Amino acid sequence: MTARSRLWNIITGAIMIAVGVVMCVYPEYGLGFAAAILSFTCTIRGFGTLHYYLTMARHMVGGKRMLYFGIMYLDLGLFTSAVSGSARIYLVLYLAVIHAFNGIVDILRSRERKAVGSGDWKWTAANGFTNVIIAIASITAGLVLRSEDAVVYIYAAGLIYASCLRIAGAFRKYAIVYIQ
Fold first, then answer.
1. Going by fewer Cβ within 10 Å, which terminus of the chain is more open, N or C?
2. 95 near 42, Cβ under 8 Å?
C-alpha cells in the first residue's frame, strides 16, 4: 500500500467516524442519511466500474463481469435514492442483505485462508461474524421491533466499526512478494 493510499484510508475512516457520530446524535434524520450515503456510494461505484469496463476491462478475460457489476451497482444506487423517501422497510432489508452478504463472503474467505495456512484468517473470520451479527440485529430492530432509531444506531455502529477497520488496515504491514 502506498503512502497516498494509506493517507486516503485514514482520511476516509475519520470522515466515516464523524458521519457515524452525527447519525447517533441525530437519529431522526439517520435513516434518510444512511439512504443518501448508500445511494451516493453505490452510484459512484457503479460509474467507476463502468468507466473501468469501458477503458480497460472489455479487453480482458472475464471483463464482462465488470460491466455487470457496474450496472448492478448503478441500479442499486438509483433504486436506493428512489425508495429513500417512502419505503423504510426496503432500506432496512437493504442494509441487512449487504451486511449478511459481506459477512458470509468473509467467513468463506477465512476458511480458504486457513486452508492455505495464512495467519490472518482469524481477522477475516471475526469481521465476517461481526457483519452477520449486524445483519441479524438490523433485521430484528427493523422488522420485529419496528424501531427506526435502533436501525440507525446499528448502522452507525457498523459504519464506525468499518472505519476503525479501515484505519487499522492503513497501519498494517503488508507482505510484498517479489518474483525473481
1. C
2. no
Which residues neighbour 48 within 8 Å (Cβ) at sequence distance 6 or greater?
70
- pTM comes to 0.77
88 vs 145: CA distance, rounded Å:
14
- CA 38/CA 84 separation, integer angstroms: 10
Neighbours of 55 (CB within 10 A): 9
Residue 133 confidence (pLDDT): 93
Q: Which amino acid is at 62?
A: G
Q: Cell numbers 420485529 correspond to what residue? A: 144
Query: Who's near 27: CB < 8 A, 6+ residues apart?
Result: 148, 149, 152, 153
CA distance linking residue 163 with residue 167, whole number of Å: 6
